[in-house]
Design goal:
Blueprint (H helix, E strand, L loop, with lengths): L4 E13 L4 E10 L2 E7 L8 E8 L7 H7 L5 H8 L13 E7 L11 E2 L9 E7 L5 E2 L1 H5 L37 E2 L4 E13 L4 E5 L9 E6 L4
Antiparallel strand pairs: 1-2, 1-12, 2-11, 3-4, 3-6, 4-5, 7-10, 7-12, 8-9, 10-11
Length: about 230
């Protein structure tokens, strides 16, 4: 079973399938390589997970805590802990990473510092991709919820795109939770499930999936094997 991968959305294109004669709309994702930065265990953390890092971050832009997370740094605290007999946490010994995320999975046969590439998805038929949708700011009900708006005839005065009544009077004198109204639209975590894997290019670290995924071109995404039957 594939652990998961971090990557960036490259963009959409189409691939012609000569066997079926069908043009397939696909999204190209630059996936990995990702370094294993930490392993979570039941004894120490209460859960099992693998922490992956993606895309090197220049050291001049990385904080000391970010550099110390991936490599051993000499400090008074580390020296004191070593003299006290506290074993240092194993480091990946790599560059600081721009994107760090955890995947809940078993940690068997995985070592800190291992590099995971897109070839781990070679035998995976479908994936779930998590991304952040494009932010569209504060939007009205017609754009945000596809409301039809008010009539465009006489008697409707300057409220053609308004929401209209919200349905509450003297009782219960409030709005119920979930009422569809104007507000922040987009810029939210979104998961697209069960996307078919069309092609895996291990040489260029590219994963090609059928359909669209959330976010703009260049946006970060999380890729994992689908749990949908």
């Amino acid at each position: 079973m594939a652990i998961g991968l971090l990557g960036r959305k490259v963009g959409m294109t189409q691939i012609y399938d000569p066997e079926t004669g069908v043009v397939v709309p696909v999204t190209v994702v630059q996936a990995g390589p990702c370094h294993v930065l930490q392993l979570r265990s039941l004894d120490r953390d209460g859960y099992e997970a693998v922490q992956l890092g993606y895309l090197d971050k220049p050291r001049r832009l990385a904080r000391r805590s970010e550099r110390g997370h991936v490599a051993k740094l000499d400090s008074k605290r580390a020296k004191a802990r070593g003299q006290g007999g506290i074993e240092a946490v194993e480091k990946a010994d790599c560059e600081p990473k721009r994107l760090v995320r955890e995947f809940r999975t078993a940690t068997d046969d995985i070592q800190v510092g291992d590099a995971i590439g897109v070839d781990s998805f070679a035998e995976v038929p479908a994936v779930d991709i998590v991304g952040t949708t494009k932010g569209r700011g504060f939007s009205g009900v017609m754009k945000r919820h596809n409301f039809s708006g008010q009539r465009a005839s006489h008697g409707v005065k300057k409220c053609h795109r308004h929401a209209g009544g919200t349905g509450c009077s003297a009782y219960p004198s409030r709005l119920f939770k979930g009422r569809r109204m104007a507000g922040q639209y987009g810029n939210a975590r979104c998961t697209v499930r069960n996307l078919k894997v069309v092609q895996v290019d291990a040489e260029n670290n590219l994963l090609v999936v059928r359909g669209g995924i959330p976010g703009p071109n260049g946006g970060y995404v999380l890729i994992r094997e689908t749990n949908k039957l």
